[in-house]
Amino acid sequence: MAVSSVYPLNPALFSHSHSLVLSQAHLKARSLRRIIRRGSRVVVLSTHSNAKILKPNRKSRYGDSLSTYDTDDDCLLDDEFAESVDFEVDGNRRVNSQKTSGAREGGQRLLNERTSKNTHERSIVGKSYHTKNRIKEAAFSDINEQGKWMTGKSAEERYPKLYEEIDLDKKCLPLLDYLSTFDLKESHFIQIYERHMQSLQINVFSAQERLDYLLSIGVKHRDIKRILLRQPQILEYTVESNLKSHIAFLMHLGIPNSRIGQIIAAAPSLFSYSVENSLKPTVRYLVEEVGIDEKNICKVVQLSPQILVQRIDISWNTRYLFLSKELGASRDSVVKMVTKHPQLLHYSIDDGFLPRINFLRSIGLHDSDILKVLTSLTQVLSLSVEDNLKPKYMYLINELRNEVRSLTKYPMYLSLSLEQRIRPRHRFLVSLKKAPKGPFPLSSFVPTDECFCQQWAGTSVEKYLAFRQQLLLKEFAQKYERRGAQRYERRG
């Protein structure tokens, strides 16, 4: 399937084919169970995240509400741009169906310039995995000599719903017992089975080795559950042939060791893409086509790891053309926005960009003013109009007696908390009779509490914090009373 975009691109970079025997996305759980019970042979290939970007009132396939704007959930991604990686499952090589050939060579220096760090990186990427037998002996003291998990309960007793729903194979029990240590429940195993049934057929020792490796590079124990629910295939990817090469790729980009685990937790699907044919071409596109400075790639990936696994050509071209036409934004301005807040490449134009731009227009800002605000504080595109932007605007006009044009000079005002910073500082200076006459200066909201107390209030931080705490408690009590009154009116 060829990918078309507004700008001409290297077709070899953005072409791939699909061969799915049966698409996971269209196989309902009930149908799956009926097929299994009839003894039919079915091959189910899991699909990657390929959601409709940021549609309102969306829910996940399992009924959970999804954020409309700023989220790391893989359902926001359209990652068919990347090529799926070949991987080994317990020594047998599997080849995913997506294929890509050819890539631009210019920009390769970004990925190779840090070769002097290779020795150090190898020691980190491969740490704790040079003695496989020792890992097995230490990790599975709860498994007996026959390889069975030591427990007095039968499969029906431990997983009654799972046993009934999918006709559970008892050989899976050691793996399920191990995964349960990551707070996975029966309902989660059913989700994993329906999304990628092969993941629950992995040998428990192999699964232990792979998850131990993720923990060793900084993934938090509490994040393993979310990773497995989003990308259960990760249990199939071998440490040597897949996981280490992808971690090395991130380190070559300059990602600090302390951030590796967070990036994996945010975008676990990156392990399903070829480093050479997908991830590196994506980085080259960001540098050569979008125009992001090479030294900022590390920052961009840390701010939005999903950028590595989305259709970056379409995301970039669509949003660049929109901002250029709607606000007269130059290419350099949009590049600055992406560098500061790469999440904007995930935001819907109709439900994300337009409502915020139209609100800024409605309060009196011209397009040139809006462009200044967005270039300086791109995060405005992620803020709720009703719950965030509108209340701050009302306070700016009615309480601070300031002009809307002041936002072009201090756009940071829109990113500050109304309850935690703006209102307390304003009320504090008013109580001290130190509030300036005329429009209240927005610059007083910018510095830290210490600098604010020293430069504006002329008092101690402790006195200001005590005032703020009392104000917050008072406002909380008022909100509680209003809610109680509203409930009483509904009942009446």
UniProtKB/TrEMBL annotation:
PANTHER family: CGI-12 PROTEIN-RELATED, TRANSCRIPTION TERMINATION FACTOR MTERF9, CHLOROPLASTIC. Residues 111-122 have a biased composition (Basic and acidic residues). Keywords: Transcription, Transcription regulation, Transcription termination, Transit peptide. The keyword Transcription applies. It comes from Salix dunnii. This is Transcription termination factor MTERF9, chloroplastic. It comes from the Eukaryota. It holds the Pfam family mTERF. Belongs to the mTERF family. The keyword Isomerase does not apply. One of its GO terms (biological process) is DNA-templated transcription termination. One of its GO terms (molecular function) is nucleic acid binding. Gene3D superfamilies: Transcription termination factor 3, mitochondrial.
